[in-house]
Design a protein that fits this description.
Layout: H1 5-32, H2 39-46, H3 50-56, H4 60-82, H5 89-106, H6 112-115, H7 119-124, H8 126-149, H9 159-175, H10 184-199
Helix pairs in contact: 1-2, 1-4, 4-8, 5-8, 5-9, 5-10, 8-9
Length: about 220
């Protein structure tokens, strides 16, 4: 046996065990809610022993946070793999936003953020919410920087403001039973009419990217 393969095999077993526990937890969250899911139920569902569980996770809150973080990490990886640049900056903003909204809807652990928005849940997710910020920033930064290079950002729109505004729109569509949420064509139109103008100016109003923004004296 090649001794050098032992660490990689051990790491693979570790990842498999963590994945088994997290998958069991997410399945229970979906079936009976976060508050109705006990550590004992997760252990039973995973088919692993209690000692094994506590070797990988210290408590139920860590399992919950790691399940959500796992989904956000997958969102960042998938975004980097699938993203391409649209000819129109406005279209880029809309399509990036639609993609992110779809991810929030289809990732099982991320659905928990909107199925139960109680204060208690968000207190338990204090670690995972930092992952939310990282994922949002990763999905927004490329388009923000493109708008910045083109001189298209509205006055006062910093990266932080851009992230805040996109996060507000995206999260609101998940939390509120918004009538456009299920109609992609109307949702795309709403983003085009509402979100895009709040972030960028029309191309004709853009400041030349290479021109210094100074006023010559008379």
């Amino acid at each position: 046996m090649n001794v050098a393969t032992l660490p990689s095999r051990q790491q693979a077993r570790t990842e498999d065990t963590r994945r088994t526990i997290l998958d069991a937890a997410v399945a229970l969250y979906a079936a009976q809610g976060v508050e109705g899911t006990t550590t004992s139920a997760v252990i039973t569902r995973s088919g692993l022993g209690r000692t094994t569980f506590y070797r990988y996770f210290k408590d139920a809150d860590e399992v919950l946070n790691q399940a959500v973080i796992r989904d956000f990490d997958a969102v960042m990886a998938d975004f980097a793999a699938q993203r391409y640049e649209h000819a129109s900056l406005a279209a880029q903003i809309v399509e990036d936003m639609l993609w992110f909204i779809h991810q929030l809807r289809r990732r099982p652990a991320l659905k928990l953020l909107f199925a139960d928005n109680s204060a208690q849940l968000y207190e338990r997710l204090n670690v995972a919410l930092n992952a939310c910020s990282r994922a949002t920033l990763a999905c927004i930064r490329p388009t923000f920087e493109r708008a910045q290079r083109q001189g298209r950002l509205r006055p006062g729109i910093t990266l932080e403001k851009y992230v805040e505004w996109c996060s507000f729109v995206g999260m609101s569509l998940q939390i509120v039973d918004f009538f456009l949420a299920g109609d992609e064509a109307q949702l795309r139109e709403m983003l085009q009419d509402f979100l895009v103008p709040s972030l960028i100016v029309p191309d004709a109003e853009a400041a030349p990217a290479s021109a210094p923004q100074t006023r010559q004296s008379a």
